[in-house]
Amino acid sequence: MSTGSMSARTACDVIVIGGGAAGMMAALQAAWAGASVTLLEKNEKLGKKLYITGKGRCNVTNVAELDEFFASVPRNPRFLNAALRQFTHEDTTATLDMLGMPTKVERGGRVFPVSDKASDVTRALARGMKDAGVQVCLNTEVARVARGEDGLLAVRLAQGGTLLSPCVIVATGGVSYPSTGSTGDGYRFARDNGHTVTPLRASLVGLTMEEKWPTLLQGLSLKNVRVSARVGKKKIFDELGEMLFTHFGVSGPLILSLSSHLPEDFSQAAVTLDMKPALTDEQVDLRLQREFAQNARKQLSSVFVELMPARMGPVFATLCGLSADAPVSQITREQRQTIGHMLKALPLRVTGTRPIEEAIVTRGGVDVTEITPGTMMSRKTEGLYFAGEVLDVDAHTGGFNLQIAFSTGALAGKSAAERALSWQ
After folding, report:
1. Where do the structural domains in the chain lie, given as residue ranges?
2. What would you report as the CA-atom Rg of the chain, rounded to the nearest whole angstrom?
3. Model-level pTM?
4. Max intra-chain CA distance, the chain
5. What is the pLDDT of residues 31-84, one digit of tens each?
């Protein structure tokens, strides 16, 4: 495995740009299909973003059935139909297992390495590429991809030199976590070859809020709550799970998923928090009546401590226009109903997202209508393929995004190898 740069004018069957999940899988599958493969990675090591996924444990895939998988992909899910069918989550785990990295299934169908080490995923894929004869060139940045001579594509290196190949796979990631090397290079390559790049935004990211009260609850986690969002009369999000209050607003699994559904104009979305999703409005009111009757001589805080974390009580009372120290006996019917309404639909006035640099994935990318879904090849430039986060496809947390990377990478690799070998 080479770690130096390539300056000579050389050629191979398939060139892969990017050594992340999609790029490594593409290179591996192309080599297994019989092609000679060169992978170019501008970082000093492979899989830099993989090291931080799943909080360092690397949630490699999800065992969800295809319909459930599609439901976890807010944009362009059907584009992935061919890729997900030809390289399934079973294929991902079987490949990793064959490469010496067994996996395990956890809550929510999430799949992790048995070792709980993200580094083992990268090591397994790197080992597989080495055994398959892939030439890996680290510290090698690509400046441009253009049409070359005799139908070949020319990959021009930033440090000088040009590589020629009939097939080039762009798997450079998005613009989230730029410290891992995801600085949007692939979007430039796409535009240079006539592709449309849809607007790039943060996805799977914390949300900022208009009010300051969430900051008073910084670090508080709410479990088994429901977050919903509407634009006009249309419900765009409705899920049960866990959320977290932070110094900037809200975060946690529910909020990260919500971020991938919100419109560009956040003021259009009405987001609410249901802290008692197992109860109807009527049941909540009956519960309050019972609690008030049992605590008639106490303060309102005595009731709230039975309904929510203690830290939240005083803040929640203020949001209801009340004091947590108010005597329960003095709470009117209308005030009780306000409390019940806020328990079921507490407004979360979202104003925006945290910076895209903090996002888990990029929303937007290479327009998938310009990509052939059965091969991942460009409809604009023959022999040019795209895979992974560079495409305008993103999903919820839970292993879905990595499976998309592996599936699109595998399809691009196999397709490129078939084309390159027949092109000869």
Report:
1. 10-201+358-423, 206-353
2. 25
3. 0.89
4. 89
5. 999 999 999 999 999 998 888 787 789 999 999 999 999 999 999 999 999 999
Question: Which burial class, exposed, middle or buried, applies to 363 when counting CB atoms under 10 A from its CB (0-12, 13-18, 19+)?
Answer: buried
Stated length of the chain: 424
Residue 172 sits at the vertex; the CA angle it makes with 167 and 174, to the nearest 5 degrees, is 140
Q: What angle do CA 340, 269, 334 make, to 5 degrees?
A: 20
Q: Which of 246, 228, 245, 264 is nearest to 344 (CA)?
A: 228
What is the per-residue pLDDT across 114-155, written as a single tens digit (0 to 9) for each?
A: 999 999 999 999 999 999 999 999 999 999 999 987 889 999
Q: Which two tokens stand for residue 69?
A: 């998988």
424 vs 36, 208, 411, CA distance in Å? 12, 54, 20
- Give the C-alpha separation, 325 to 329, whole Å: 12
| Regions in the chain scoring below 50 on pLDDT | 1-8
Q: According to the model, what pLDDT value does residue 180 have?
A: 66
Residue 241 Cα to chain centre, angstroms: 17
The two tokens of residue 16 are: 């892969």
DSSP state letters, 244-297: EE-SSEEESHHHHHHHTTS-SSGGGEEEEEES-TTS-HHHHHHHHHHHHHHTTT
How far is Cα 107 from Cα 170, in angstroms, rounded to an integer?
A: 33
Cβ atoms 114, 20 nearer than 8 A: no
Q: What is the dihedral of CA 13, 15, 19, 23, to 10 degrees?
A: -70
Candidates 210, 185, 188, 208; CA nearest to 197 is: 188
Copy the structure tokens of residue 227: 């977050």
Tokens standing for residue 78: 């059907």
pLDDT of residue 120: 96
Q: What is the pLDDT of residue 177?
A: 64
Task: With beta carbons less than 8 A apart as the criterion, state whether 204 and 361 touch.
Answer: yes
- Residue 336: HSE in the Cβ half-sphere, 13 Å Cα cutoff: 21
For 64, the token pair is 């969800």
**6-28 core/surface letters (b: 16 or more CB in 10 A; e: else):** beeeeebbbbbbbbbbbbbbbbb
DSSP conformation letters of 192-230:
HTT--BPPPEEES--EEESSSHHHHTTT-EEEEEEEEEE
Please give the CATH topology (third level) of the domain spanning 10-201+358-423: FAD/NAD(P)-binding domain (3.50.50)
pLDDT of residue 2: 43
